[in-house]
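Contributing new complexes? Match this layout with flavin-adenine dinucleotide.
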Amino acid sequence: MSAPLVPARLAFAADGTPFSQAFGDVYHSAEGGPGQARHVFLAGNGLPGRWRGRRRFTLLETGFGLGLNFLVTWDAWRGDAGRCERLHFVSLEKHPFSRHDLEQLHARHPEFAPLAAQLHAAWPLLVPGVHRLEFEGGRVVLTLAFADATHALRELRLAADAVFLDGFDPRRNPELWSPELMRVVARACAPGATAATWSAAASVREALRSAGFEVQKRPGFAQKRDMLQARVVRSGREAAAPGERRALVVGAGIAGAAVSERLCARGWEVTLIERQPRRPAGEPGRHAGVFHPVVTPDDSLFARLTRAGFLAALARWRALQAAGQALVWDECGVLQLARDEREAVAQHNAIATLGLPPGYAQQASRDAASAYAGVPLAAGGLWFPSSGWIRPLSLIDAQLAAAGARLEARFGCEAARITRGPDGWTATDRDGRTIARAPVVVLANAADALKLAPQRAIRIRRVRGQISFLPGERFAAPHVVVLRGGFVLPAMRGESIAGASYDFDDDDPSPRASSHAGNLERLARILPGAAADLDPAALQGVVGFRAVAPDRLPLIGALCNEDAAAPRNPRLATLPRCEGLFGSFAFGSRGLLWAGLGAELLASHLEGEPLPLEARLAEALDPGRFLLRTLRRTTSAQA
Ligand SMILES: Cc1cc2nc3c(=O)[nH]c(=O)nc-3n(C[C@H](O)[C@H](O)[C@H](O)COP(=O)(O)OP(=O)(O)OC[C@H]3O[C@@H](n4cnc5c(N)ncnc54)[C@H](O)[C@@H]3O)c2cc1C
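Output block (do not edit by hand):
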């Protein structure tokens, strides 16, 4: 379980310097944070010179604090004609400031006002986990881990080129300078990485040396006589780099559109293959889906993954909208009503123990929930004020448009086979004609992915789902999304949507009255009596199919080569993979929540960039997890 997040509390020392009561120390020297950042962290790491001409440069910072080091670095990057193409700034922070506090703090540094305003606008909800914020059209990427530094760094996957070791005085905040933290810092470094810090304490020097850094004293900033400069000798990771940036993506649903957009944003050429004909542009359809995180008292892996997906979706959709794309969505809020007393207690415990901010999730009594909904509800439950609904077709269109000219979309074209030859992967149609070739192929075609790349260890089920359209004149819709076993959405264009059936082993693509009747039963558990005037036989609806893995988590990453010899001590990292073959499918009932995160994860992996979420969460999505379980079962049966 993630520890509850405790935000920083804003206070000032007598001379006006921001001060932490928790650590009894100032956030930066009284002479000013920006000067210290330039002298100690930029110059101390040979910047900006070292990032010049690089495709990517990755910085790691051990304490985000006020974010001044980030603003100074971003400002220096902007002002440098030879800057790297993509700057990754990964920063750890156990006690982040609220947006409001940051606004106050940054007002003291008007030279950064335009950049600070963008940071404030993108500042995430203060919930534990990894948050990715993009600026400069994705060329400056801030990855924030709101967690204890040592714990967070063990869970992050990156290859840092330079490290800003910044924390409170080692005597007051020893965890941020411990030999253990320095060891994990060294493991997160690329070969030749440097580090710098304002502290020249003997304990810090010793911790750095024992972790495999060469350390030198240099003149410090302002009143400080010395600072430390270090270079990693024994280094951890080499960042992978793709050869040719060209990919085939199969399937233009929300997963394939997201992967295409994320790859094109990184300069890849993508051919997207979709068997359905192209739809008329700008028609977002009647269907809408719900997005909201799941909250459990133990902050389970599933809950953490939904949180990561939710935050990533919000950030990406806002970025798409800011870039002028026409998304049809509403953060109107989502109520998840407790199904029974047991669930009500679990919801109460979750809110009480996790310390989640009210902007993310809060408990609502039946009266409060009914007030949010504007109609009388059957129960109280959890209230997610920043969640809501989105039209998936508008999301697909927005992502395809954002992908721009690097994307070639081939609609009405079915990939019947994919084969690997010396030139990479070739997709062919039913008549054996080549559709396209590329070194990388991403299967984003839901349950059909395994038809193109059979994997014996993986079983994906197709689950039919039908939604019902409820005419506005016969049904008083809630003002917010309400869930309880099923869902009901607010009215849009004169109708509301209720759903959804969950039918195993049912390939019927046509809407039917029995499924509408089931949806009305679900609706009655949410809004008692509201469905009384609705006749299931007279309703309209649509049917779709979910692709569901046994653990209800998607498959995102490299697919395994099941025919190669299995490693003796199998782990995800040692499983044999099919070169250039990746998947992003089986999103179950949460494609809207996870497709964007999955695409960012895949693109980051292909580019050798810092991953946008914790290793444990990324591993939970790894398609190799099923082969690993099979191999481990076989090994233990043989033992
Ligand atoms: C009734 C219902 C309600 C739902 N409600 C929600 C909700 O509220 N919130 C939520 O997050 N999720 C919801 N979902 C789940 C969500 O719709 C899915 O998770 C999501 O659509 C999966 O997207 P995808 O891109 O992976 O797959 P799909 O949308 O299935 O896209 C796959 C695409 O691949 C194409 N394709 C397949 N094979 C080939 C091939 N060989 N060659 C070329 N093209 C191919 C298909 O034509 C298709 O367009 C719901 C699902 C259903 C059925």
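Reviewers usually confirm one structural detail per submission. For this one: The longest strand covers residues 461-471.
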